[in-house]
Amino acid sequence: MSGRDSGDSAAVTRSPSPDLPGAQLHDLPVFAGLPHELIERLIERSISRTYPAGAMILEQGEPAPPLQIVRRGIVDLTHVSGKSECGVLLLSARDLLLPATTLFHEPALVSARALTNTRMLAIDGEAVAAALVESPVFAANLMKAMSGHWRMAVRNILDLNCRTAAQRVGAFLLRIADLQPDGSAPVLPIAKRHLAVRLGMTAETLSRMLQTVANHGLHLRGRTIVIRDRTAIETFCGPDPYPVRDEHSLDVFAL
Amino acid sequence: MSGRDSGDSAAVTRSPSPDLPGAQLHDLPVFAGLPHELIERLIERSISRTYPAGAMILEQGEPAPPLQIVRRGIVDLTHVSGKSECGVLLLSARDLLLPATTLFHEPALVSARALTNTRMLAIDGEAVAAALVESPVFAANLMKAMSGHWRMAVRNILDLNCRTAAQRVGAFLLRIADLQPDGSAPVLPIAKRHLAVRLGMTAETLSRMLQTVANHGLHLRGRTIVIRDRTAIETFCGPDPYPVRDEHSLDVFAL
DNA sequence: CGCATAATTGATTCAGCTCAAACCGAGTGG
DNA sequence: CCACTCGGTTTGAGCTGAATCAATTATGCG
Protein backbone atom coordinates (compact mmCIF):
# COMPACT_ATOMS: atom_id res chain seq x y z
CA MET A 1 0.00 0.00 0.00
CA SER A 2 1.00 3.64 0.39
CA GLY A 3 1.91 5.69 -2.63
CA ARG A 4 4.98 4.04 -3.87
CA ASP A 5 5.71 2.73 -0.44
CA SER A 6 6.53 5.90 1.35
CA GLY A 7 7.54 6.06 4.95
CA ASP A 8 4.75 4.27 6.75
CA SER A 9 5.46 0.60 6.31
CA ALA A 10 9.15 1.33 6.29
CA ALA A 11 8.80 3.04 9.62
CA VAL A 12 7.49 -0.11 11.27
CA THR A 13 10.61 -2.06 10.55
CA ARG A 14 13.01 0.83 10.55
CA SER A 15 15.12 -0.19 13.51
CA PRO A 16 18.75 -0.10 14.56
CA SER A 17 19.52 -3.17 12.52
CA PRO A 18 18.44 -6.65 11.43
CA ASP A 19 17.51 -9.06 14.07
CA LEU A 20 14.77 -7.35 15.94
CA PRO A 21 12.44 -10.24 16.65
CA GLY A 22 9.31 -8.19 16.93
CA ALA A 23 6.18 -9.84 18.17
CA GLN A 24 4.82 -10.38 14.69
CA LEU A 25 7.54 -12.83 13.87
CA HIS A 26 6.03 -15.36 16.23
CA ASP A 27 2.87 -15.23 14.22
CA LEU A 28 4.45 -16.38 11.00
CA PRO A 29 2.60 -19.42 9.72
CA VAL A 30 5.81 -21.49 9.65
CA PHE A 31 5.89 -21.19 13.39
CA ALA A 32 2.25 -22.06 13.97
CA GLY A 33 1.74 -24.55 16.74
CA LEU A 34 5.40 -24.69 17.72
CA PRO A 35 6.45 -24.58 21.36
CA HIS A 36 7.34 -21.06 22.26
CA GLU A 37 10.90 -21.83 23.16
CA LEU A 38 11.54 -23.50 19.81
CA ILE A 39 10.33 -20.42 18.00
CA GLU A 40 12.67 -18.34 20.11
CA ARG A 41 15.56 -20.59 19.29
CA LEU A 42 14.88 -20.37 15.57
CA ILE A 43 14.53 -16.63 15.66
CA GLU A 44 17.76 -16.33 17.56
CA ARG A 45 19.52 -18.16 14.79
CA SER A 46 18.09 -15.89 12.15
CA ILE A 47 18.87 -12.54 10.65
CA SER A 48 16.72 -10.05 8.84
CA ARG A 49 17.82 -8.49 5.63
CA THR A 50 16.28 -5.81 3.51
CA TYR A 51 16.54 -5.53 -0.24
CA PRO A 52 15.77 -2.47 -2.30
CA ALA A 53 13.44 -2.89 -5.25
CA GLY A 54 15.28 -4.63 -8.04
CA ALA A 55 17.87 -6.34 -5.87
CA MET A 56 18.75 -10.00 -6.39
CA ILE A 57 18.02 -12.15 -3.39
CA LEU A 58 19.12 -15.45 -4.82
CA GLU A 59 20.76 -16.30 -8.10
CA GLN A 60 19.53 -19.32 -10.01
CA GLY A 61 21.97 -22.22 -9.90
CA GLU A 62 23.12 -21.61 -6.39
CA PRO A 63 21.66 -23.46 -3.44
CA ALA A 64 20.13 -21.44 -0.63
CA PRO A 65 21.45 -22.57 2.71
CA PRO A 66 19.35 -20.53 5.09
CA LEU A 67 15.58 -20.82 5.09
CA GLN A 68 14.26 -17.47 3.99
CA ILE A 69 10.85 -16.01 4.66
CA VAL A 70 9.34 -12.93 3.14
CA ARG A 71 8.43 -10.44 5.84
CA ARG A 72 7.50 -7.58 3.59
CA GLY A 73 7.45 -6.85 -0.12
CA ILE A 74 7.05 -8.84 -3.28
CA VAL A 75 9.63 -11.36 -4.45
CA ASP A 76 9.73 -12.49 -8.03
CA LEU A 77 10.84 -15.98 -8.96
CA THR A 78 11.97 -16.08 -12.56
CA HIS A 79 14.31 -18.07 -14.68
CA VAL A 80 16.63 -15.99 -16.79
CA SER A 81 18.24 -17.48 -19.84
CA GLY A 82 19.95 -15.17 -22.21
CA LYS A 83 17.86 -12.07 -22.52
CA SER A 84 14.49 -13.76 -22.08
CA GLU A 85 12.99 -13.99 -18.65
CA CYS A 86 10.40 -16.51 -17.67
CA GLY A 87 8.39 -15.87 -14.53
CA VAL A 88 7.25 -18.64 -12.25
CA LEU A 89 5.74 -17.13 -9.14
CA LEU A 90 5.48 -14.02 -7.02
CA LEU A 91 5.91 -14.37 -3.30
CA SER A 92 4.52 -11.97 -0.76
CA ALA A 93 4.61 -11.51 2.97
CA ARG A 94 4.77 -14.72 4.99
CA ASP A 95 5.78 -16.90 2.06
CA LEU A 96 8.79 -19.17 2.20
CA LEU A 97 11.47 -18.65 -0.41
CA LEU A 98 12.15 -21.89 -2.25
CA PRO A 99 12.00 -24.12 0.82
CA ALA A 100 12.64 -27.18 -1.30
CA THR A 101 15.87 -25.75 -2.61
CA THR A 102 16.89 -24.84 0.88
CA LEU A 103 16.17 -28.14 2.56
CA PHE A 104 17.91 -30.37 0.09
CA HIS A 105 20.75 -28.17 -1.02
CA GLU A 106 19.89 -28.33 -4.66
CA PRO A 107 20.66 -25.54 -7.08
CA ALA A 108 17.69 -23.26 -7.59
CA LEU A 109 16.00 -23.38 -10.96
CA VAL A 110 14.97 -19.77 -10.66
CA SER A 111 16.38 -16.52 -9.40
CA ALA A 112 14.67 -14.54 -6.69
CA ARG A 113 14.48 -10.79 -7.06
CA ALA A 114 12.86 -8.14 -4.94
CA LEU A 115 10.25 -6.24 -6.92
CA THR A 116 9.47 -3.82 -4.14
CA ASN A 117 11.43 -2.95 -1.07
CA THR A 118 11.60 -6.24 0.67
CA ARG A 119 12.46 -7.54 4.08
CA MET A 120 13.50 -11.16 4.48
CA LEU A 121 14.03 -13.31 7.50
CA ALA A 122 16.79 -15.85 7.03
CA ILE A 123 16.90 -18.73 9.50
CA ASP A 124 20.11 -20.64 9.76
CA GLY A 125 19.93 -23.91 7.84
CA GLU A 126 21.28 -26.08 10.61
CA ALA A 127 18.90 -24.67 13.16
CA VAL A 128 16.09 -25.50 10.76
CA ALA A 129 17.36 -29.03 10.26
CA ALA A 130 17.58 -29.49 14.01
CA ALA A 131 14.08 -28.16 14.51
CA LEU A 132 12.81 -30.50 11.84
CA VAL A 133 13.91 -33.66 13.57
CA GLU A 134 12.69 -32.36 16.86
CA SER A 135 9.29 -31.05 15.89
CA PRO A 136 6.88 -32.86 13.62
CA VAL A 137 4.67 -29.81 13.71
CA PHE A 138 7.41 -27.73 12.19
CA ALA A 139 7.89 -30.37 9.54
CA ALA A 140 4.19 -30.33 8.86
CA ASN A 141 4.23 -26.57 8.52
CA LEU A 142 6.95 -26.74 5.93
CA MET A 143 5.14 -29.46 4.05
CA LYS A 144 2.04 -27.40 4.06
CA ALA A 145 3.85 -24.51 2.46
CA MET A 146 5.41 -26.79 -0.11
CA SER A 147 2.00 -28.19 -0.92
CA GLY A 148 0.78 -24.72 -1.54
CA HIS A 149 3.68 -23.98 -3.82
CA TRP A 150 2.99 -27.11 -5.81
CA ARG A 151 -0.58 -26.03 -6.11
CA MET A 152 0.39 -22.62 -7.39
CA ALA A 153 2.76 -24.15 -9.89
CA VAL A 154 0.06 -26.45 -11.20
CA ARG A 155 -2.34 -23.55 -11.55
CA ASN A 156 0.32 -21.74 -13.49
CA ILE A 157 0.83 -24.68 -15.83
CA LEU A 158 -2.88 -24.96 -16.41
CA ASP A 159 -3.20 -21.26 -17.02
CA LEU A 160 -0.37 -21.27 -19.49
CA ASN A 161 -1.89 -23.81 -21.75
CA CYS A 162 -5.59 -23.67 -21.17
CA ARG A 163 -6.18 -19.97 -20.94
CA THR A 164 -5.62 -17.11 -23.33
CA ALA A 165 -3.42 -14.19 -22.42
CA ALA A 166 -6.44 -12.02 -21.76
CA GLN A 167 -7.99 -14.60 -19.47
CA ARG A 168 -4.80 -14.90 -17.51
CA VAL A 169 -4.65 -11.16 -17.04
CA GLY A 170 -8.25 -10.99 -15.95
CA ALA A 171 -7.98 -13.90 -13.56
CA PHE A 172 -4.81 -12.55 -12.03
CA LEU A 173 -6.20 -9.10 -11.40
CA LEU A 174 -9.37 -10.58 -10.00
CA ARG A 175 -7.33 -12.69 -7.67
CA ILE A 176 -5.20 -9.76 -6.57
CA ALA A 177 -8.27 -7.73 -5.89
CA ASP A 178 -9.85 -10.48 -3.82
CA LEU A 179 -6.74 -11.06 -1.76
CA GLN A 180 -6.40 -7.42 -0.86
CA PRO A 181 -7.79 -6.40 2.52
CA ASP A 182 -11.35 -5.77 1.50
CA GLY A 183 -11.82 -2.25 2.73
CA SER A 184 -9.31 -0.40 0.59
CA ALA A 185 -9.37 -0.07 -3.15
CA PRO A 186 -7.41 -2.98 -4.57
CA VAL A 187 -4.15 -1.96 -6.15
CA LEU A 188 -1.63 -3.62 -8.40
CA PRO A 189 1.49 -3.96 -6.25
CA ILE A 190 4.05 -4.29 -9.03
CA ALA A 191 5.07 -2.75 -12.33
CA LYS A 192 3.20 -3.91 -15.42
CA ARG A 193 6.39 -5.12 -16.96
CA HIS A 194 6.87 -7.59 -14.14
CA LEU A 195 3.28 -8.66 -14.25
CA ALA A 196 3.77 -9.50 -17.90
CA VAL A 197 6.70 -11.75 -17.08
CA ARG A 198 4.79 -13.48 -14.32
CA LEU A 199 1.90 -14.15 -16.69
CA GLY A 200 4.12 -15.46 -19.44
CA MET A 201 3.59 -12.76 -22.02
CA THR A 202 5.33 -9.69 -23.36
CA ALA A 203 4.74 -6.23 -22.00
CA GLU A 204 3.13 -5.24 -25.29
CA THR A 205 0.67 -8.07 -25.16
CA LEU A 206 -0.18 -7.28 -21.57
CA SER A 207 -0.94 -3.73 -22.57
CA ARG A 208 -3.33 -4.87 -25.27
CA MET A 209 -4.94 -7.47 -23.10
CA LEU A 210 -5.64 -4.89 -20.44
CA GLN A 211 -7.82 -3.15 -22.97
CA THR A 212 -9.55 -6.37 -23.85
CA VAL A 213 -10.16 -7.09 -20.20
CA ALA A 214 -11.45 -3.57 -19.71
CA ASN A 215 -14.14 -4.30 -22.27
CA HIS A 216 -15.29 -7.15 -20.11
CA GLY A 217 -15.82 -5.30 -16.90
CA LEU A 218 -12.40 -5.00 -15.27
CA HIS A 219 -10.60 -1.68 -15.55
CA LEU A 220 -7.24 -0.58 -14.34
CA ARG A 221 -7.09 3.10 -13.53
CA GLY A 222 -3.52 3.96 -12.72
CA ARG A 223 -2.65 1.08 -10.48
CA THR A 224 -6.04 0.64 -8.90
CA ILE A 225 -8.12 -2.29 -9.99
CA VAL A 226 -11.72 -1.43 -10.69
CA ILE A 227 -14.15 -4.29 -11.03
CA ARG A 228 -17.07 -2.83 -12.86
CA ASP A 229 -18.91 -5.99 -13.79
CA ARG A 230 -17.95 -8.93 -11.66
CA THR A 231 -19.94 -11.67 -13.31
CA ALA A 232 -18.96 -10.52 -16.78
CA ILE A 233 -15.27 -10.65 -16.08
CA GLU A 234 -15.58 -13.94 -14.25
CA THR A 235 -17.28 -15.68 -17.09
CA PHE A 236 -14.82 -14.11 -19.49
CA CYS A 237 -11.86 -15.48 -17.59
CA GLY A 238 -13.01 -18.93 -18.43
CA PRO A 239 -14.63 -21.94 -16.86
CA ASP A 240 -12.76 -21.09 -13.68
CA PRO A 241 -11.01 -24.36 -13.99
CA TYR A 242 -10.22 -25.27 -10.45
CA PRO A 243 -11.79 -25.61 -7.06
CA VAL A 244 -11.77 -22.85 -4.50
CA ARG A 245 -8.88 -20.54 -3.94
CA ASP A 246 -7.66 -21.99 -0.73
CA GLU A 247 -3.93 -21.57 -0.95
CA HIS A 248 -4.10 -19.40 2.13
CA SER A 249 -5.02 -22.39 4.22
CA LEU A 250 -1.74 -23.87 3.05
CA ASP A 251 0.19 -20.89 4.30
CA VAL A 252 0.91 -19.73 0.82
CA PHE A 253 0.31 -16.13 -0.14
CA ALA A 254 1.97 -16.12 -3.49
CA LEU A 255 0.47 -14.45 -6.53
CA MET B 1 -4.25 -56.85 -18.16
CA SER B 2 -0.65 -56.95 -19.27
CA GLY B 3 -1.22 -55.92 -22.86
CA ARG B 4 2.18 -55.31 -24.33
CA ASP B 5 4.16 -55.43 -21.15
CA SER B 6 4.14 -59.15 -21.35
CA GLY B 7 4.52 -61.61 -18.56
CA ASP B 8 7.77 -60.58 -16.96
CA SER B 9 6.90 -57.72 -14.64
CA ALA B 10 3.33 -58.89 -14.37
CA ALA B 11 4.49 -62.27 -13.19
CA VAL B 12 6.26 -60.73 -10.24
CA THR B 13 3.13 -59.11 -8.95
CA ARG B 14 0.61 -61.61 -10.23
CA SER B 15 -0.69 -62.81 -6.96
CA PRO B 16 -3.97 -63.90 -5.37
CA SER B 17 -4.93 -60.36 -4.54
CA PRO B 18 -3.81 -56.95 -3.29
CA ASP B 19 -1.69 -56.75 -0.24
CA LEU B 20 1.24 -58.98 -0.90
CA PRO B 21 4.07 -56.98 0.65
CA GLY B 22 6.91 -58.38 -1.39
CA ALA B 23 10.45 -57.58 -0.47
CA GLN B 24 10.75 -54.81 -3.01
CA LEU B 25 8.24 -52.69 -1.15
CA HIS B 26 10.73 -52.10 1.61
CA ASP B 27 13.04 -50.54 -0.90
CA LEU B 28 10.65 -47.80 -1.91
CA PRO B 29 12.35 -44.45 -1.47
CA VAL B 30 9.58 -43.18 0.83
CA PHE B 31 10.68 -45.81 3.31
CA ALA B 32 14.37 -45.08 3.06
CA GLY B 33 16.05 -44.89 6.44
CA LEU B 34 12.95 -45.85 8.39
CA PRO B 35 13.13 -48.35 11.21
CA HIS B 36 12.15 -51.74 9.89
CA GLU B 37 9.18 -52.15 12.13
CA LEU B 38 7.71 -48.82 11.07
CA ILE B 39 7.90 -49.88 7.46
CA GLU B 40 6.11 -53.07 8.36
CA ARG B 41 3.41 -51.19 10.16
CA LEU B 42 2.82 -48.91 7.20
CA ILE B 43 2.72 -51.78 4.76
CA GLU B 44 0.26 -53.60 6.95
CA ARG B 45 -2.05 -50.63 6.76
CA SER B 46 -1.83 -50.52 2.99
CA ILE B 47 -3.46 -52.22 0.08
CA SER B 48 -2.31 -52.73 -3.47
CA ARG B 49 -4.58 -52.01 -6.37
CA THR B 50 -4.16 -52.51 -10.05
CA TYR B 51 -5.64 -50.37 -12.76
CA PRO B 52 -5.96 -51.28 -16.40
CA ALA B 53 -4.66 -48.81 -18.97
CA GLY B 54 -7.07 -45.93 -19.22
CA ALA B 55 -8.58 -46.29 -15.77
CA MET B 56 -9.12 -43.29 -13.53
CA ILE B 57 -7.20 -43.46 -10.28
CA LEU B 58 -8.31 -40.18 -8.83
CA GLU B 59 -10.78 -37.64 -10.06
CA GLN B 60 -9.91 -33.96 -9.88
CA GLY B 61 -11.82 -32.13 -7.19
CA GLU B 62 -11.86 -34.96 -4.73
CA PRO B 63 -9.28 -35.25 -1.96
CA ALA B 64 -7.20 -38.40 -1.76
CA PRO B 65 -7.22 -39.79 1.74
CA PRO B 66 -4.73 -42.63 1.43
CA LEU B 67 -1.15 -41.97 0.38
CA GLN B 68 -0.66 -43.68 -2.96
CA ILE B 69 2.57 -44.80 -4.51
CA VAL B 70 3.13 -46.00 -8.03
CA ARG B 71 4.55 -49.50 -8.00
CA ARG B 72 4.34 -50.15 -11.69
CA GLY B 73 3.10 -48.36 -14.78
CA ILE B 74 2.71 -44.76 -15.83
CA VAL B 75 0.24 -42.40 -14.24
CA ASP B 76 -0.88 -39.28 -16.00
CA LEU B 77 -1.80 -36.15 -14.09
CA THR B 78 -4.00 -33.91 -16.18
CA HIS B 79 -6.64 -31.34 -15.66
CA VAL B 80 -9.77 -31.86 -17.68
CA SER B 81 -12.09 -28.98 -18.36
CA GLY B 82 -14.72 -29.42 -20.93
CA LYS B 83 -13.24 -31.36 -23.79
CA SER B 84 -9.75 -29.94 -23.51
CA GLU B 85 -7.19 -31.77 -21.43
CA CYS B 86 -4.14 -30.17 -20.00
CA GLY B 87 -1.30 -32.38 -18.85
CA VAL B 88 0.84 -31.59 -15.87
CA LEU B 89 3.08 -34.54 -15.12
CA LEU B 90 3.62 -38.24 -15.70
CA LEU B 91 4.45 -40.40 -12.72
CA SER B 92 6.28 -43.67 -12.92
CA ALA B 93 7.33 -46.41 -10.57
CA ARG B 94 8.25 -45.26 -7.06
CA ASP B 95 6.61 -41.86 -7.41
CA LEU B 96 4.10 -40.56 -4.90
CA LEU B 97 0.69 -39.63 -6.18
CA LEU B 98 -0.15 -36.07 -5.20
CA PRO B 99 1.23 -36.30 -1.68
CA ALA B 100 0.31 -32.70 -1.02
CA THR B 101 -3.31 -33.34 -1.80
CA THR B 102 -3.26 -36.39 0.41
CA LEU B 103 -1.64 -34.85 3.44
CA PHE B 104 -3.80 -31.79 3.69
CA HIS B 105 -7.09 -33.10 2.43
CA GLU B 106 -7.44 -30.57 -0.30
CA PRO B 107 -9.27 -31.24 -3.50
CA ALA B 108 -6.92 -32.30 -6.27
CA LEU B 109 -6.41 -29.86 -9.11
CA VAL B 110 -5.77 -32.67 -11.53
CA SER B 111 -7.08 -36.12 -12.25
CA ALA B 112 -4.84 -39.15 -12.15
CA ARG B 113 -5.26 -41.75 -14.86
CA ALA B 114 -3.36 -44.94 -15.57
CA LEU B 115 -1.78 -44.79 -19.01
CA THR B 116 -0.45 -48.31 -18.86
CA ASN B 117 -1.41 -51.18 -16.63
CA THR B 118 -0.61 -49.79 -13.26
CA ARG B 119 -0.17 -51.07 -9.78
CA MET B 120 -0.56 -48.71 -6.87
CA LEU B 121 0.16 -49.05 -3.20
CA ALA B 122 -2.26 -47.12 -1.02
CA ILE B 123 -1.23 -46.52 2.56
CA ASP B 124 -3.93 -45.62 5.01
CA GLY B 125 -3.97 -41.90 5.68
CA GLU B 126 -4.08 -42.15 9.44
CA ALA B 127 -1.21 -44.56 9.55
CA VAL B 128 0.76 -42.07 7.49
CA ALA B 129 -0.17 -39.21 9.80
CA ALA B 130 0.90 -41.26 12.79
CA ALA B 131 4.18 -42.19 11.15
CA LEU B 132 4.79 -38.56 10.36
CA VAL B 133 4.71 -37.38 13.95
CA GLU B 134 6.77 -40.33 15.02
CA SER B 135 9.48 -40.31 12.41
CA PRO B 136 11.23 -37.17 11.19
CA VAL B 137 12.96 -39.30 8.61
CA PHE B 138 9.65 -40.25 7.10
CA ALA B 139 8.66 -36.60 7.08
CA ALA B 140 11.91 -35.75 5.38
CA ASN B 141 11.30 -38.40 2.76
CA LEU B 142 7.94 -36.95 1.93
CA MET B 143 9.36 -33.47 1.76
CA LYS B 144 12.03 -34.67 -0.55
CA ALA B 145 9.47 -36.06 -2.92
CA MET B 146 7.45 -32.88 -2.77
CA SER B 147 10.57 -30.89 -3.55
CA GLY B 148 11.08 -33.02 -6.60
CA HIS B 149 7.54 -32.45 -7.72
CA TRP B 150 7.93 -28.74 -7.35
CA ARG B 151 11.05 -28.93 -9.41
CA MET B 152 9.33 -30.83 -12.16
CA ALA B 153 6.48 -28.36 -12.17
CA VAL B 154 8.87 -25.46 -12.50
CA ARG B 155 10.65 -27.14 -15.37
CA ASN B 156 7.33 -27.61 -17.02
CA ILE B 157 6.45 -23.95 -16.62
CA LEU B 158 9.77 -22.92 -18.05
CA ASP B 159 9.43 -25.32 -20.95
CA LEU B 160 5.99 -24.07 -21.74
CA ASN B 161 6.99 -20.52 -22.20
CA CYS B 162 10.64 -20.55 -23.10
CA ARG B 163 10.81 -23.46 -25.51
CA THR B 164 9.15 -24.17 -28.80
CA ALA B 165 7.02 -27.25 -29.27
CA ALA B 166 9.80 -28.98 -31.19
CA GLN B 167 12.31 -28.28 -28.46
CA ARG B 168 10.01 -29.68 -25.84
CA VAL B 169 9.55 -32.86 -27.84
CA GLY B 170 13.26 -33.27 -28.35
CA ALA B 171 14.14 -32.58 -24.75
CA PHE B 172 11.50 -34.96 -23.48
CA LEU B 173 12.57 -37.84 -25.68
CA LEU B 174 16.17 -37.23 -24.80
CA ARG B 175 15.28 -37.34 -21.15
CA ILE B 176 13.26 -40.52 -21.54
CA ALA B 177 16.12 -42.15 -23.35
CA ASP B 178 18.61 -41.16 -20.67
CA LEU B 179 16.42 -42.41 -17.85
CA GLN B 180 15.94 -45.80 -19.41
CA PRO B 181 18.24 -48.55 -18.14
CA ASP B 182 21.17 -48.01 -20.42
CA GLY B 183 21.52 -51.45 -21.93
CA SER B 184 18.25 -51.75 -23.75
CA ALA B 185 17.08 -49.61 -26.63
CA PRO B 186 15.14 -46.71 -25.12
CA VAL B 187 11.45 -46.88 -25.82
CA LEU B 188 8.56 -44.46 -25.53
CA PRO B 189 6.37 -45.93 -22.81
CA ILE B 190 3.11 -44.21 -23.71
CA ALA B 191 0.90 -43.39 -26.65
CA LYS B 192 1.83 -40.33 -28.69
CA ARG B 193 -1.51 -38.78 -27.98
CA HIS B 194 -0.76 -38.75 -24.29
CA LEU B 195 2.71 -37.46 -24.86
CA ALA B 196 1.18 -34.56 -26.73
CA VAL B 197 -1.03 -33.71 -23.78
CA ARG B 198 1.87 -33.91 -21.37
CA LEU B 199 3.91 -31.56 -23.55
CA GLY B 200 1.11 -29.07 -23.92
CA MET B 201 0.44 -29.41 -27.61
CA THR B 202 -2.03 -31.11 -29.92
CA ALA B 203 -1.45 -34.56 -31.34
CA GLU B 204 -1.16 -33.07 -34.81
CA THR B 205 1.55 -30.69 -33.74
CA LEU B 206 3.41 -33.47 -32.00
CA SER B 207 3.38 -35.46 -35.19
CA ARG B 208 4.87 -32.61 -37.16
CA MET B 209 7.41 -31.79 -34.50
CA LEU B 210 8.61 -35.37 -34.50
CA GLN B 211 9.61 -34.85 -38.09
CA THR B 212 11.34 -31.63 -37.26
CA VAL B 213 13.20 -33.31 -34.43
CA ALA B 214 14.14 -36.17 -36.72
CA ASN B 215 15.92 -33.68 -38.96
CA HIS B 216 18.04 -32.73 -36.00
CA GLY B 217 19.35 -36.12 -35.06
CA LEU B 218 16.63 -37.78 -33.00
CA HIS B 219 14.45 -40.38 -34.73
CA LEU B 220 11.54 -42.38 -33.46
CA ARG B 221 11.24 -45.73 -35.17
CA GLY B 222 8.02 -47.28 -33.99
CA ARG B 223 8.28 -46.60 -30.31
CA THR B 224 12.03 -46.89 -30.02
CA ILE B 225 13.98 -43.72 -29.60
CA VAL B 226 17.03 -43.49 -31.81
CA ILE B 227 19.55 -40.81 -31.02
CA ARG B 228 21.52 -40.42 -34.19
CA ASP B 229 23.34 -37.20 -33.44
CA ARG B 230 23.47 -36.40 -29.79
CA THR B 231 25.16 -33.03 -29.88
CA ALA B 232 22.97 -31.82 -32.72
CA ILE B 233 19.74 -32.61 -30.92
CA GLU B 234 21.03 -31.21 -27.68
CA THR B 235 21.93 -27.88 -29.13
CA PHE B 236 18.65 -27.87 -31.01
CA CYS B 237 16.65 -28.34 -27.82
CA GLY B 238 17.90 -25.03 -26.62
CA PRO B 239 20.27 -23.55 -24.11
CA ASP B 240 19.45 -26.44 -21.82
CA PRO B 241 18.09 -23.95 -19.42
CA TYR B 242 18.60 -25.60 -16.10
CA PRO B 243 21.19 -27.30 -14.00
CA VAL B 244 21.69 -31.03 -13.89
CA ARG B 245 18.84 -33.48 -14.01
CA ASP B 246 18.94 -34.58 -10.47
CA GLU B 247 15.31 -35.21 -9.66
CA HIS B 248 16.20 -38.81 -8.95
CA SER B 249 18.09 -37.77 -5.88
CA LEU B 250 14.83 -36.28 -4.70
CA ASP B 251 13.04 -39.57 -5.09
CA VAL B 252 11.11 -38.34 -8.04
CA PHE B 253 10.92 -40.39 -11.19
CA ALA B 254 8.30 -38.46 -13.00
CA LEU B 255 8.53 -37.62 -16.67
C1' DC C 1 -12.30 -59.49 -41.66
C1' DG C 2 -13.92 -55.18 -40.44
C1' DC C 3 -14.69 -51.66 -36.98
C1' DA C 4 -12.69 -48.28 -33.86
C1' DT C 5 -9.17 -45.88 -32.36
C1' DA C 6 -4.64 -43.77 -33.28
C1' DA C 7 -1.49 -41.34 -36.24
C1' DT C 8 -0.40 -38.60 -40.20
C1' DT C 9 -0.97 -34.97 -43.72
C1' DG C 10 -2.70 -30.78 -45.69
C1' DA C 11 -5.00 -26.17 -45.73
C1' DT C 12 -6.37 -22.43 -43.10
C1' DT C 13 -6.74 -19.40 -39.16
C1' DC C 14 -5.44 -16.86 -35.23
C1' DA C 15 -3.19 -15.59 -30.81
C1' DG C 16 0.64 -13.70 -29.46
C1' DC C 17 5.55 -12.23 -30.67
C1' DT C 18 8.74 -9.00 -32.87
C1' DC C 19 10.16 -4.75 -34.40
C1' DA C 20 9.62 0.06 -34.64
C1' DA C 21 7.78 4.31 -33.54
C1' DA C 22 5.14 7.46 -30.70
C1' DC C 23 3.92 8.69 -26.11
C1' DC C 24 4.09 9.90 -21.26
C1' DG C 25 5.50 11.03 -16.50
C1' DA C 26 9.21 11.93 -13.51
C1' DG C 27 13.54 13.58 -12.42
C1' DT C 28 17.41 16.77 -13.66
C1' DG C 29 19.74 20.58 -14.81
C1' DG C 30 20.10 24.94 -17.09
C1' DC D 1 10.04 27.70 -15.82
C1' DC D 2 11.21 25.06 -19.57
C1' DA D 3 13.97 21.84 -22.28
C1' DC D 4 15.80 17.20 -22.03
C1' DT D 5 16.56 13.11 -21.11
C1' DC D 6 15.23 8.34 -19.75
C1' DG D 7 12.52 4.33 -18.40
C1' DG D 8 8.28 2.61 -18.83
C1' DT D 9 3.94 2.14 -21.36
C1' DT D 10 1.20 2.29 -25.46
C1' DT D 11 0.11 1.73 -30.39
C1' DG D 12 0.70 -0.04 -34.94
C1' DA D 13 2.09 -3.28 -38.75
C1' DG D 14 3.66 -7.52 -40.00
C1' DC D 15 5.15 -12.28 -39.06
C1' DT D 16 4.99 -16.92 -37.23
C1' DG D 17 4.21 -20.96 -34.34
C1' DA D 18 0.85 -23.70 -33.20
C1' DA D 19 -4.24 -24.67 -33.11
C1' DT D 20 -8.14 -25.97 -35.77
C1' DC D 21 -10.72 -28.35 -39.17
C1' DA D 22 -11.00 -31.92 -42.38
C1' DA D 23 -9.55 -35.81 -44.81
C1' DT D 24 -6.57 -39.94 -45.21
C1' DT D 25 -3.83 -43.61 -43.79
C1' DA D 26 -2.14 -46.87 -40.29
C1' DT D 27 -2.79 -49.88 -36.35
C1' DG D 28 -4.59 -52.59 -33.51
C1' DC D 29 -8.35 -55.76 -31.64
C1' DG D 30 -12.54 -58.29 -31.08
Per DSSP, what share of the residues of chain A sits in E-state strands of 2 or more residues? Answer: 15-25%
Any idea what the shape of chain A is?
A: globular
DSSP summary, beta strand count of chain A: 10
Overall pLDDT metric of chain A:
86
User: Based on helices, strands and strand pairing, what is the structural class of chain A?
Assistant: alpha+beta
Topology order of chain A in helix (H) and strand (E) letters = HHHEEEEEEHEEHHHHHEEH
Radius of gyration of chain A: 19 Å
- What's the story with the biggest beta sheet of chain A? 4 strands, antiparallel
Protein model, in words:
The structure is a homodimer of 255-residue chains. Chain A has a four-stranded antiparallel β-sheet with strand order 1-8-3-6. The longest helix of chain A is centred in the middle third of the chain and has 27 residues, at 136-162. Chain A is of the alpha+beta class and 255 residues long. Chain A has helices spanning 7-13, 23-26, 36-44, 99-104, 125-134, 136-162, 165-179, 192-198, 203-214, 230-236, and strands spanning 46-51, 56-58, 67-72, 75-81, 84-91, 96-97, 111-114, 118-123, 218-221, 224-227. Chain A binds a DNA duplex (30 and 30 nucleotides) through residues 164-166, 191-193, 201-209, 211.
